[in-house]
Amino acid sequence: MSLIVQKFGGTSVATSEKIMGAARKAIRAQQQGHQVVMVVSAMGKQTDVLVDLARQITEQPPAREMDMLLSTGEQVSVALMAMAIHALGGQAVSLTGGQIGIKTDSSHTKARIQSISSERMRKHLDDGHIVIAAGFQGVDDDYNITTLGRGGSDTTAVALAAVLRADSCEIYTDVDGVFTTDPRIVPSARKMERVSHDEMLELASLGAGVMHSRSIEFGKKFDVPIHVRNSASFSDEPGSIIGNLPESSDRAVSGCALTKNEARISLTGVPDKPGTMHRIFSRLATVNIAVDMIVQNIGAAGVADIAFTVLETDLPAALKTVGEAARELGGEVSHDANLSKVSVVGLGMATQTGVADRMFRALADARVNIQAISTSQIKISALVERAQGMEALRAVHDEFELEKPPQSRASFGDGATKVERPSPVDVVSRLQRMEDLTIDDIRLDQTQGRITISQLPDSPGIAAEIFEAVAAESLLVDMIVQGAGRDGLANLSFTVPRDAVLQAVGVAMDAADRLGCGPVSSDATIAILSVFGVGIRTHVGVGARMFKALSEAGINVEMINTSEVRVNVVVAADKGEAGLKALRTAFADVMG
Ligand code: ASP
Ligand code: MG
Predict the structure, then answer these.
(1) Are residues 127 and 43 in the same domain?
(2) What distance in Å separates the CA atoms of residue 64 and residue 146, rounded to the nearest whole number?
(3) Could you tell which of 12, 40, 47 is best to mutate to test the pocket of ligand 1, judged by most ligand atoms within 8 Å of the CB?
(4) Ligand 1 atom closest to the CA of 10, numbered from 1
(5) In this predicted structure, what is the pLDDT of residue 415?
(6) Residue 406, beta-bridge partner list
(7) Do 171 and 305 belong to one domain?
(8) Given the CA of residue 48, which atom of ligand 1 is nearest to it?
(9) Whose Cα sits closest to atom 9 in ligand 1?
(10) In the chain, which residues have pLDDT < 70?
(11) Can you tell me the distance from the alpha carbon of 18 to that of 21, in angstroms, rounded to the nearest whole number?
């Protein structure tokens, strides 16, 4: 018998009418022959109300009691939902996280799921009941109530779908699906038919706030297709499917996003030697600050400049921590706030040329100055002034014509929502500590060389000119990193296949001359070490662990970029093998 998980978010259960509406959807699904598990959030803004109540009592409520309090929101919803189903003539049973057997660790207010037992749910389902599960909560080994972090009901839903090996996981919300970008900023944004887990992970972390990032990590790890749809639509209007395929196989860019509140911290003149990165980023990981857009410049005279972004809310804590590191290491700390990050995301860009230059050109034409650049396999991000953020987002959305549906679809074979699922035994064994960091692979790429252009003039259009010149020669660029330069002038480094380095240097020198940049340098043989996995960003310690391993092996890090699913570091060519070995050892305990 097929099994569906239906999750209803706060806005979808905000009133008694909406609860009745959700109950009808579940009964209808059951009548169509499915077993149904509902996962519900607290009604409307109830969780915020509870947070506020706690704050009225004390500025620092104990985390354990906070969880005790917040979990009540979902308990209200599940009870009312079960009553609604009874009132409509159906059979239902409501269950708390503890009653289901959702075991988490003990980190209150941000607990991670360790295991879920499916027995009790199965029994109720086989008896013909609709199971109504409280989202967002679990219990630790001592039966203390825990919560999974704000927005965590999505994660509950996808996790239940994974353990129950559900045929589909429907997320009912107040939007029609996943859009190419935020429609409030770009009215022409289009609902996507589907988006891949990887793209969604990037977009979710970029503030396309449709889904809790961790729920997408689950979806990817356990191959659960997630159907995001609007609970308000009467007809069964399809939403967007987050699955293992992108919307179209020939589009380079699928979506774009803006993270408004970014701040940058720069450290200039730190020693360019093994261990520097480790000292800085392990400290930040200890205080749980997620770092993004890490840019290190090729050192001159034994010193390097490092810059990275953090969310503006983390700025004070990050500055304190980095200040301590700088006192130990040497170097000067500065920062700028009022920045935003605009990013384009697409699986297709991993294999297509000419994405970067189009993005930079679009920004240049909108007179937007790029302050820093960082890329991953499937994402290009540019840091811009906050006042220009929305305009920048519109410019890139237009450039890639995201408002138009793709001409060809990725081919799905038969069952569009069916994918190869792991066997039950496999799922159960993988469920052991199911939210742990898993590293899928660690790889060494010795095919690339690096080109660096120094002292970029600080004005719009420079990156566009450079990458247009590069694209004109059909050079396939892999990593791009811009930022952290001397005297406010950024450096720009990029990598190309080794046999194209000479050609790229020629292009770079011409461009540098024309644009008034400083000298061009290159390294025809570099090694890129990549760590792939799920949860790379939400587990803040990954970067720290990498830098530690490399530092202990005496290997200097030259360039870095990070994404949700991968961290890349560039090291000297002759250190590649040793680096690979060091990383494999460092991550041995979490290799999938
Ligand atoms: N009620 C919780 C929150 O507001 C969990 C959720 O809605 O996903 O964060
Ligand atoms: Mg939510």
Answers:
(1) yes
(2) 7
(3) 47
(4) 7
(5) 37
(6) none
(7) no
(8) 4
(9) 150
(10) 207-209, 234-235, 297-300, 409-434, 484-488, 537-540, 592
(11) 5
* Residue for token pair 């905000």: 14
User: Ligand 1: which atom is nearest the Cα of residue 152?
Assistant: 8
* Nearest in space to 169 (alpha carbons), one of 52, 5, 411: 5
Give, using CA atoms, the residue closest to atom 6 of ligand 1: 151
Residue 187 counted as domain residue: yes
pLDDT for residue 388: 96
Which residues have C-beta under 5 Å from ligand 2, the single-atom ion?
A: 9, 151
pTM of the model: 0.85
Q: Name every protein residue with a CB atom under 6 angstroms from any ligand 1 atom.
A: 9-10, 41-42, 47, 73, 135-136, 150-154
Reading the block at residue 199, the tokens are: 């793209």
What's the gap in Å between 211 CA and the centre of ligand 2?
A: 7
Instruction: Compute, in angstroms, the gap from residue 112 CA to the centroid of ligand 1.
Output: 15
| Cα separations in angstroms, 119 against 100, 105, 127, 160, 488 | 8, 21, 12, 12, 61
Helix (H, G, I), strand (E, B) or coil at 296: strand
Spatial CB neighbours of 421, under 8 Å, sequence gap ≥ 6: 165, 223
pLDDT at position 416, please?
A: 39
Residue 415: inside a domain: no
The burial of 313, by beta-carbon neighbours within 10 Å (0-12 exposed, 13-18 middle, 19 or more buried), is given as exposed
CA of 434 to the centre of ligand 1 (A): 21
What is the reported pLDDT for 422? 52
User: CA–CA separation, 212 vs 247, rounded Å?
Assistant: 21
Hey, what are 444's tokens? 């060494």
Residue 419: predicted pLDDT: 44
- What is the chain's length? 592
Q: What is the span of the domain harbouring residue 302?
A: 261-402+439-590
Looking at the CA of 174, which ligand is closest?
Answer: 2
Pocket test for ligand 1, best of 150, 172, 216, 231 (most atoms within 8 A of CB): 150
Report which ligand 1 atom has the smallest distance to the Cα of 45. Answer: 4
Residues 243 and 312 in one domain: no
Interatomic CA distance for residues 225 and 389, integer angstroms: 32
